Amino acid sequence: MLPHRALTTFLVACAAAAGAAGCGGGGGAPSGLAPVSTTSAQQVANGPAGAPLPAAIHTAPSRAAVPILMYHVIAPAPPGAEYAGLWVTTAALRAHVAALATAGYHGVTLDSVLDAWRGRARLPPHPVVLSFDDGYLSQGKGAGAALRAAGWPGVLNLAWHNLGTPGGLTRSRVQTMIRDGWEIDAHSLTHPDLTTVGAAQLRREIAGSRAAIRRAFGVAADAFCYPAGRFDPAVEAAVRAAGYRAATTELPGAARPGADRYALPRIRVDAGESPATVVQGVRAAVGSAA
Hints:
Elements lengths: L6 H10 L24 H6 L21 E4 L18 H13 L3 E2 L2 H8 L9 E8 L2 H14 L4 E4 L12 H9 L3 E4 L12 H19 L5 E3 L7 H9 L4 E7 L11 E5 L6 H15 L1
Helix pairs in contact: 3-5, 3-9, 5-6
């Protein structure tokens, strides 16, 4: 995820790349938006339509380590982009998903992983979570289409102030993602470095972003993603106090059920990474977490 001071510039760059696949202007939020019903974790784990797992798929042990991939903009980087490594094309994402599926992995949500770790749900073999930070429109378009075609859910870590901005997601687009089985989690209100703000702002950014998502979309928003990966004991304590079940970081590795669930690691995916490299990184992370 980008440093907070660069987010506005980054969104403008994304909007300027509207001609590129999967990226474009945000537009305002439609009025009178009805809340969306919350989708159960088990339905999401089984696919966007909540269909049961095919008979040939046997569930894996519920205490397995799970890799969480981290993506940002899903579009070609415009010339001179400051953070070009964070732009992954839709074609590349589709290739990554196809390679993971061929290797036996199955896309799930973070909620389903947390439920499985507590013995409340079952996971398919070799589960993997695909998370997308900040709330770029290209995530709803490019990533939405790629995961829909594969029958996989995604996890959107939504920085609330990006909603409805040029280059950001619209509310109607987020609604579509929810209908496709996506999990929507909180990524603060304004994407500051939470380790530098006062106690009152810390509470607003963490608890307020969850409340805003719940009001707008009728979903649980049970996980938090630290802006720019920055957290400390005080920030983690505020996340716990706000009622979140878990939080994700930019620490490398696979998420393990016995570790701190408010400091879950992820595997960053950058521009130019081949499908084979992504699969290799996932396998290595799970192996080291075993």
